[in-house]
Amino acid sequence: MEPKGWPGVVYHEGGIEHRLPTEVDRDRKGPAGKYRAGFLNPAMSGNRTRSVLMLEHIGKTLLGGVKKIQILDALCATGIRTRRWLEETSEGVSSRLRIKMCDMDEEALGWARANLENDDLKKNVVVIQGDARKEILRQGWHWIDLDPYGSPVPFLDLAMQATARRSVISISATDTAALSGSSPGPLRRRYGARVHMDGLKHDSGLRILLASAAKAAARHDRVIRPLLSVWDSHHLRVTILVERSKMGASAIEENLGWRVASPDDSTVDSAIQAGLLPRHDSGSRPMHVMLPLYEYPNLNTGVSGPLWTGRIGDPDVMASMSEAAAEGICKVDDLEMNQKEVRRAKQAVRRICDEGKAIHGSHLVITDALPSFVGEGDPPSPSKMAEALREDGFCAEVSRYAEPSFRTDAPWSAVLQAFRGLS
Ligand SMILES: C[S@@+](CC[C@H](N)C(=O)[O-])C[C@H]1O[C@@H](n2cnc3c(N)ncnc32)[C@H](O)[C@@H]1O
């Protein structure tokens, strides 16, 4: 049965045409605000674009041997994410998708069902009205998408129990005030963590979300590997590979720890001893260092954590998020409309592909903070800093981050030398 108000209004995103009960401003930014049934947040379109590219890549690589990829779009609303997966991935991937869409909201699901009628692969989709917390546990999944309003914490333990031997979980969080440290109460309650509110607060927030996922995984004998972590204006999104491993789960603390701002010499030494800073940084004082969990630092001195201290992305996955790949998924017939979607899709992956080349680097440097930290000069351009460091033989790339910044594996002394060279 068609939902009340069908066919509503047309909304274009990526390569599809989707129908909604009311008009939404395609360029709207920010959180969803007060919920209305059938609401779709266009500010999440970049999130969905990255999720299509991620599924395309993982469907051919890590899940390449899986004949039927069991997916739960756990909080699907009007179902646009599932529809984009079906329509925008290549046939070799889309034909293998077996998707269950779930939401509590019957009205939103009415729009989801009616929209699905346009998709040739609708036979491979089941739509369920109910509580995702129950649906998650009904079977094992290769892919779980968690896109709640607010914090994903209520879903994490459930999702970890419902993964197959090897699975992907994508987790959105819109409780950004908590995760960036401006609401310390909810941050402590939900994530058991704190954030020092300097230029790296968004990166610390992503790492705290990863730490929560890693701890939930370990409770269920699983380990995580971050594939992509992005802070995108009003929300965060991390995508992780989850695999079963009791031994790995027991070693969870190897990837958890603290971030310390303006560390003293002994803190730098401890970071090097723990393998969280390369030996080539010995004798320098970087802007930030990571410490392992057991080095419980003085919490009143610029400390964030406990957080994930390992890599927050996978270079191969990040390399697959190219602007060319993003352009390739936009296939709307209307040329003018398609051009707009191409622009938006490219923006959704901007810098990710290149940043992957330096994702292993220990330093994420906020360029605007360099002059006051060093005590001289003006804020340098992140691209010029990265270029100078690459010329010196290091990996360095401009970062897709909330502040002008770059990532590098160069020693801190080389970062300072490049900064002074540009001043
Ligand atoms: C942010 S929206 C999802 C947006 C959607 N993924 C998209 O890309 O358009 C969150 C959805 O979660 C649903 N929801 C909240 N709690 C739920 C629960 N426990 N079980 C099922 N659905 C739930 C809401 O009805 C809402 O549609």
Topology of helices and strands:
Layout lengths: L8 E5 L2 E5 L24 H16 L8 E5 L6 H9 L2 H4 L2 E7 L2 H11 L8 E5 L2 H4 L5 E6 L6 H9 L1 E11 L2 H4 L4 H8 L9 H19 L2 E11 L2 E10 L1 H5 L5 E6 L3 H9 L14 E5 L10 E6 L6 H6 L2 H6 L6 H15 L2 H4 L7 E4 L3 H5 L7 H10 L4 E3 L6 E4 L3 H11 L1
Parallel strand pairs: 3-4, 3-6, 4-5, 6-7
Antiparallel strand pairs: 1-2, 7-9, 8-9, 10-11, 10-12, 13-15, 14-15
Helix pairs in contact: 1-2, 1-14, 6-9, 17-18
The structure holds S-adenosylmethionine.
Structure summary:
This protein has 423 residues and is an alpha/beta fold. 37% of the residues lie in helices and 22% in strands.
Q: What do these coordinates show?
A:
This protein is an alpha/beta fold and 423 residues long. The protein has two domains: 9-251, Rossmann fold (3-Layer(aba) Sandwich), CATH 3.40.50; 365-423, N2,N2-dimethylguanosine tRNA methyltransferase, C-terminal domain (Phenylalanyl-tRNA Synthetase, Chain B, domain 1, 2-Layer Sandwich). 37% of the residues lie in helices and 22% in strands. It is built from 18 helices and 15 strands. The chain has helices at residues 45-60, 80-88, 91-94, 106-116, 132-135, 153-161, 176-179, 184-191, 201-219, 246-250, 265-273, 315-320, 323-328, 335-349, 352-355, 370-374, 382-391, 412-422, and strands at residues 9-13, 16-20, 69-73, 97-103, 125-129, 141-146, 163-173, 222-232, 235-244, 256-261, 288-292, 303-308, 363-366, 396-398, 405-408. The model has no long low-confidence stretch (mean pLDDT 95).
